[in-house]
Amino acid sequence: MACAAIASVALTTTAFAGGFQRGTADTDILYESGPVSMRTGLIYVNPMRGFDSINGQSGDFGDYAQAYNIPTYAVGFGGENFGCAGTYIISFAADSDYTGSPGGALPPGPTAQSRTLVNEFDSNEFGMTCRASYTSDMGRFSLLGGVFAEDFNFEGSSASFVPTGRSTPPSLGSLPIFLPVQTTVETRGDYEFGYRIGAAFEKPEIALRAQVLYRSEVTHNTFTGTGTVAASGDAFVFGPGGQQVVIPNAAPPVGTPLAVGTSGFNEVTSPQSLYVNGQTGIAEGTLLLASFRWTDWSTNKSAISSITTGGVTRSSVSPYNWRDGYTASIGIGRAFTDEIAGAVSIGYDRGVSTGSETTYTDLYTVAGGVSFKANKWSEIRVGGLVGYWTDGAQSISDGAYFNGTVGDDVVLAGNASIKLNF
User: Fold this and answer.
1) How many CB atoms lie within 10 A of CB 233?
2) How far apart are alpha carbons 9 and 27 in whole angstroms?
3) Is the pTM higher than 0.90?
């Protein structure tokens, strides 16, 4: 069936759903028939998620969840009984910009006056997965296994103020003078190793393939990084009622470094997951497609970024307290001609948010894709997705450090890839 070649087109665009999940390694290339196959692609996702209210203040604060791209690369080689695939993917990531919030940043945390401006992290994954197969009258049975290496990279900035050690003249009340500062950190975690293991069964006569694949968790606990504290505005004092009163010409120019130090991060766990997917022919030229993923997001309790300057360490805590994630999709693939096939699917992702933060609520998706195979050695795939994100809320009583709500939002995504057989 021509549509067997695009069994994943309508389903892969849902891979971003659920927590910090970005992409999954393209191990499907293990099932290509050629001795050598290469596939490269790009997925674009625009989450369109923003706060409707922050600490009771409603407004249009823009989308804090930023659009992102996921490049994918895979090279497979082998034959009927054995094959291996080298893969690259951005496995986990997040990119948030809170400068549209009231006051230009999120509210301060409970133990510090710092206010989050921007947070961004990603994990690059390089993997090698192999297949050992045995073919009988029933079909082909395969065992899958391999290893991967994953790193961790974080960048963040926050706004706060520090005492300058100076005061206004006694005639003005001897008020202490404060200076607005921006703290920026860049933290890197070494590559750590994990593994994949699974099994598959194929029966080409009915285009049947069923696969289960487990990905181990990876723990990152060795970090190196730098942190900078720089002037970000005019010096001020607190006047009557707590309002800030600017003191002219009392601050260094914006951007002037005030302190440089090291940065760190608490232990980070990329969660284990179990992925089950399958396809089978249900009519001439037609496939039924389905997938299910469990991800152990309950390991994600909080993220703690720290900076040490002058022997003093200051930390910024982001609570999550997520629950496990479940993602399911079902679809239909159809071969229109020997060269062109298409697929559509619907999907559901159970939100992992529990009230400590409210980004990842329930998500419902509709996806579709088209494959064009001009000859035996090349194939082009394009696909798209529209998702409906349900509303949600976070509260201090549920572990958040500020109250907030998000409304019903939209997710848009698209992907394109090209495969070459040699």
Assistant:
1) 15
2) 14
3) yes
